[in-house]
Write the structure tokens for this entry.
Amino acid sequence: MCRSCGAIVGAGEPQCAVCGAPTASHPAATQTTRPADRETIRFARAILDRPYKFTIIFLIANFFVFLLMWESSGMNSQSIWQGFPEPVLATYGAKLNYLINRPYYQWWRFVTPIFIHINLPHVLINMYSLWMVGPYVEKLYGSAKFVVFWVLTGIAGVVASYLTVRPNLAGSSLGRFLFKSDDLPSAGASGALFGLVGVLFIFGIKFRRELPEGFKRAFGTGMLPIIVINLVIGFVGRGFIDNAAHLGGLLAGAALALAVEYRRPGERSSIAAIWKVLRAVSLIVVVLSFYKVVRNFNRPVPPSAQQLADARLQTRLNFVLAMDLLQDQVTRLVHNKDATEVEAVVQRALQTPAPDSRAAELRDRLMDILTRSAAARGNPQQLEKLDAEYQAWEKDYGEWVKGATNGD
């Protein structure tokens, strides 16, 4: 560790990469060291001595929510690795456009996704990234601004994800990189993390002539490889990685760094007080959002339009299957005089919900034909008459099936 500024120095390094101070009390004569800059040492000490308590608080909060979600998922290994069930994600506040839209207006889903994750690898990767990037931003800007940056860029990422659910634009490879074809649960701290990267990127560019050498290498253009690598990963994983949230957070972080005036440690108290108020507002928004999650925790999550359509389709399929069995039984009665399964088939048809009133009417007509066919097994004339009724019923049933299919 550097004696001048407190930065960590690699083993065998002759001088600190941050402030330039020599690392040994008597450097070897053959080693060439640049003189330590007093202003650089002062800057580095002021930054590195700052606490990063909210980075740790956010780490703990994310892991705590993750454990709660795991408990709600049954604490099995499958959910922790493959992903929590969709109802659990929705209950804990994942972003779902249809729940944010009318008539539900669950606005808190713009905030809560910042603190929830899909599975164990997801939370580990994001929290490792927070541990690597968060302390730099919090030390440079202070805890108050760090909290505001985290919440605002996280919300910006969720908003970007919300705006890019556009099935008509998700056809090409580039389209799938940015747009989503389905309104699936979206969650994770990635948008806020990209926001912090955007802050450091702009910070390094704005103050590239003033920063100590070590800080120049870490920030500004030094962040470009991180940004590019993550965008490449996002392109490869398009379809399940929410790249819109990443880009939304990145751009929001860059905009904040451009707009927010940076002051070295010891800034004016009036400026610091404003940021403390903004930090309090940001934390209140987070707490209020999770309060809304708790209020709605035991209420069933309303189904989406797609889920309703799938349920209607399944109801129709079940009904058609039951009707097929009834039709088969009518044919066996009329032609083979076989009534061995009539009771079981009728019972199944009664237990199968009808998709609509017309379907219920058709079912009742066919059951009536089946019942009368069973009673008329010894009467060929009656069976012939019932067969004619059955032919008419088949025509009506075919028209209903055609209409139900076109309705999808």
